[in-house]
Amino acid sequence: MEIQADHYAIKQTDNLEPALASYRQLAEQSNTDISPAFWIKVLRSSHPPIADRITRIEEEIKKRETNQ
Fold first, then answer.
1. Which superkingdom (predicted)?
2. What is the DSSP letter of 42?
């Protein structure tokens, strides 16, 4: 469900830079592994890892820059 929410938010937002900056800051301040092993992802499947969220936003930014 969180992945779908992230996808929806990315599509509805014109400026993704603030979200990207927020996730990067969260990654720096977090005491958790931002890119956990597969089995940890499965156990905590309700929320995607921060690294995955950052990657999705970066990919969308590149896609938008290419399509301008």
1. Bacteria
2. H
Q: What mean pLDDT is predicted for residues 56-60?
A: 96
**Residue 27: inside a domain:** no
Number of structural domains the chain divides into: 1
Give the chain's length. 68
pLDDT confidence of 34, banded at 50, 70, 90?
low
Residue ranges making up the domain that contains 43? 37-67
Indicate whether 42 belongs to any domain: yes
Closest CA to 35 of 17, 55, 19, 20: 55
Give just the sign of the alpha carbon dihedral 24, 30, 31, 36: negative
User: Virtual CA dihedral for 20, 9, 57, 46, nearest 10 degrees?
Assistant: 90
- For residue 24, give every residue at least 6 positions away whose Cβ sits within 8 Å of its Cβ, in sequence order, or none: 54
